[in-house]
Amino acid sequence: MSLVEVESVPGQQPATFEIVNDFSIVAATVNGSGSQTANNVLVRAMFKMGIPVTGKNLFPSNIKGLPTWFLIRVSKDGYTARQDRAAILIAMNLSTVAEDVANLESGGVVFYPDDWRITFSREDLTYYPMPVKDALKDKDIAPRLRDYVENMAYVGAVAQILQIPLETIRDAVSYYLGGKEKAIALNMSVVDASYQWFQANVAKRDPFRVRPMNGTDGMIMIDGNSAAALGAVFGGVSVIAWYPITPSTSVVDAARDYLALLRQDKATGKATYAVVQAEDELAAIGIVFGAGWAGARSMTATSGPGLSLMAEYAGLGYAAELPGVIWDVQRVGPSTGLPTRTSQADLTFTYFLGHGDTRHVVLLPGNMEECFECGWRALDLAEQLQTPVFVLSDLDLGMNQWMSKPFEYPSEPIKRGKVYDAAALEQMKSFARYLDADGDGIGYRTLPGTDHPLAAYFTRGTGHNEYAIYSERPDDYVKNAQRLARKHETARTLVPKPVIVDAPNADAAVILYGSLDAPVREALDILRDKHDLNLGTMRVRALPFSREVFEFVSRYKKLYVIENNTEGQLAQLLRIEIPERAADLVSIAYLDGLPFTAAFVVDRILEQGAL
Amino acid sequence: MGIQKTNPLGLSKADYGGAKSTLCPGCGHNSISNQIIAAAFELGINPSHVVKMSGIGCSSKSPAYFMSRSHGFNGLHGRMPSAATGAVLANKYLKVIGVSGDGDTGSIGLGQFKHMVRRNLPIVYIIENNGVYGLTKGQFSATADMGQTIKKIGTNELPPIDLCLEALAADATLVARSFSGSSKEVTELLKVAMHHNGTAVLDIISPCVTFNNSPDSTKSFPYGKEHANPLHDITFIPLAEEIILDDYEESNGHGRSREVQLHDGTFIRLRPVAADYDPTNKIEAMRILEEAHMNQEFLTGLIFLDQSRQSMTDSLQLVDKPLALLTEAESRPSREALQNVMALL
Lengths: 611, 345
Fold this sequence. Notes:
The complex is a heterodimer. Helices cover 37% and strands 19% of the residues of chain A.
């Protein structure tokens, strides 16, 4: 390392002030070194102290060896967005330490292993060397576990300096190690050794500390993929087919765990569900639509490249009117892009997925509760509308640790949509699958296996008339297309409405969706409190836009459409649907793979200037 | 007018019929549709419990032309196996008749085909194999003969893919080959396939009378008529029929008849035509396919049967009730269950 000229030992004196429950920590580690447990333990321990806290993992597409960063936002005010600069660095990766130190907030803190032969040049930081190797000394640790357990040394150090009680750390260790006593004891022995050494040998010289509060009472901590899986399980999902892809894989991992727990038939021990790992995403979605067609509630989870492969079946699902739910946990594209980084760049692709005139129903959850709710509601909507329903989450929501209110049990009974059974058919003279009997564009279907001579119909991606008979007649084509358009209008009335906060007397407003909820919410507070700027907000939660979206746009002179992609995709869609306001829909779009910060949003809005 | 014959369900053969075919007159696929109708009628299969799945191509149009009382699904080119898999998962009691072609299975759908076989999805998977793309007017398919010349298209320089060998390589549990002109054999093989608990691959040479029917093509009618060489004379014996043990003694100088019992108790009887052939020996199955290819022979019959592998639905340990018919109480865990999960987070 050559960053340094002077060996400096700043922060010799105790700090004269305190910064409590309001800072960010970054743990810079080597991928595959098992730091995830250590980081999660810190997050959970503070969460259990009642302190609002969020954990974000910035990881590489790699199994072992590349740098990875874990960001912990501690915020007494409950803010959960990423901050550009952390105050505290846990430096465990020599190859990135120069950059990591350079990025720290002034007045910050650096923890680092005391066996690094390194000197630091910044004099505005406090440095705490950690006796990592000593903490492991004399302990009976299998060589293959040493790297993993080593991370527990920084847990002990940070806990002591920030004043997190050891007992709280122990509970968190136990939580992540599934209560396995031997593993807990091993990990805690390292935490203890490090904690005790700091207590005995280090005088605290920095202002940062945590203090118990009641900011997380009754809250849970979860990631969006687990929330999605849980929602689907409580939505009665019965068939899941998938192909592994980051960052969506843990949706199905979690679903499998919850299904095994909650969906075994008690009497027989048999499964009321099937989970199939398909040969690719195209087969996965084929299985989903086959199951949906035959009457099972079905879903898949994927990310951008998988969605590309699914385009073929998405068109069939739209044309043949097949229910099925597709979760896209978005990562950065195009192509393989940045596989382990977050984005919101699949919006327009998903909305129009498929050749020909195709428009889909797309749900846009913005927090953990909504991931859960979309989990079950998407299954309802797919069967109600007899069409594919896409849910666009992203890596930030899906794979990071978020506080949330506990999930509410589905507020409505399961909706299976319009289905004729044998008894209904018995009252009928004929059955026309695609007849718009109710004027909402949605026909009645029958499930294969229905024991009635009228039940059968022929599902096809080819042109067809109301009786599902092959047709190339222009009038049949137009009639069908018009009905599908009516169905899309019906979808507007059924999808989740936007979350709107109007600002009285404000001329401008912000429009956003998905995971930008966290940074934008914080940014709006800053704009109000520090810049005296009040803005209305609308968080869009679905495509197609519902009536409320149009009404909101009509109430403001200027609308900043903020999104985590390069092209401004939501702005594009709004301009298509509200062309007369195109000039007033100002796109603030940016994508670099990192979750947005509030500071970025504030700057970009301020630079728009006065109206 | 005589009294119409009905099967045990009280259905006539007409109840198994479909829409009028729009394929070319004389197309082998139409014969196969009729053979499906005959097999389902004779077995007394409830058409409401059958689903007809297909991909894209001439073959894949044909499900419209048989069994109108069964749900049909004419999906994507080469992607029928995945949709069929989903349908079976939703309702494991559905009897799936999949109809595909050599382009649909051997080219664009080879991946899904092999993975379906590997999973042993319960399905009757029929390949109506004519070596040519009909709807796009006569291009070679992956099963076309090497060295074959078609006017306007040229000469095929590539070796054919043998879909029976592909199926065997993917651990298929039932593999058969036949000729659409061999009505009795196809019908009996269909009956066997309909009673097989797993993927039954039937590679049926089904001549394209418009684009590939010259006598030197191995996919032509004249060739099939002349060269179809049955491994055995196959008969499906339903449960209702008593097996007459005397038949065991019958011999034609090529060994005794074999009787193979299927899982559901029905039997297949195989009478040797030439040399005795054991369809439960996989090495033998691969050998005769390779030999037939080298010797330019057209072997037909039940090439391989393995009843030891579990079907996909069996291995998933699904509840008795079709997943499609689960009630809210059976598919949505309780309020308490959610509270318990929340308490752990």
